[in-house]
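Do me a favour: review this protein, sequence plus structure tokens, and tell me how the chain folds. Record follows.
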Amino acid sequence: MNCIDFHSHTTASDGSDTPLELLLKAGSMGLTHLAITDHDTTFGVREGCRILTSGMPNLLCGIELSCSGAPGKCHMLGLGIDPDNATLCGTIERVQNARNERNALIAGRLTKLGMPCDINDVRKYASDDGVVGRPHFAQWLVANGYCNDMHHAFRAYLGDDAKAYMPVDCLVPAEGIAIIHAAGGRAYVAHPMLLRLKAHETIDVRIKALVDAGMDGIEVYYPEHTPVQTEKLTRLAHKFGLTITAGSDYHGTSRPHNKLGRMTDGQRAPIDRIDPWLLDQTISPAR
């Protein structure tokens, strides 16, 4: 029986497992299909393709692009992508440059708040080839005694609208979707029930706006979606002709409540509801 997880992170972004560790863990847990979807980088999934071997699940190439601007801030999952696509690679370079600029601003803001922060010290919490993001700042804050835990760090300093938050404006959702399409993939809004909606805006209105921007589907099955929300998203997918994906948003020890292969209500996703195209795009391990 197929068992999938199409949203996971490695040390290439803010996960704690290397691509090798993640693939071995997924295989040992009985997953048959896994997507590596690191934030704004394909380094992890490219490494996964290189090392894929017997005992590991089929691998789906993916990415999670950070988008902001109209119709609203979101994370867009690109699944079934070509990680070497020139348009995608050029975009990643631009996004990472914007992230580096944002990181310097966060370090400066923390320093002004009385917590002298050297970005080189923060980089120590990311892998050599990893993208530095807010979770690494959170680790730095905890390690240096400024915060009790990661949750405290985000609540006090790094979360949206917190004291040291700085936006990274690079891709609007329509552009992110177009780039995913250029790389041969399909675009799914990640964890839609966690979107920050505007006053009087409904999830139906936001999904419709993303559909108009070219979005292909919705991440319906997700650990923080309740069963009621999951069914609502399923109805919205049918209403707008969207396909469905499922993911745990696994990060390893940096987000221990997200369990690999477990989505809504801690259950595995029903494979018959998942976009079959995604299964067809996976790469089989060498035998």
DSSP finds ten helices and seven strands in the chain.
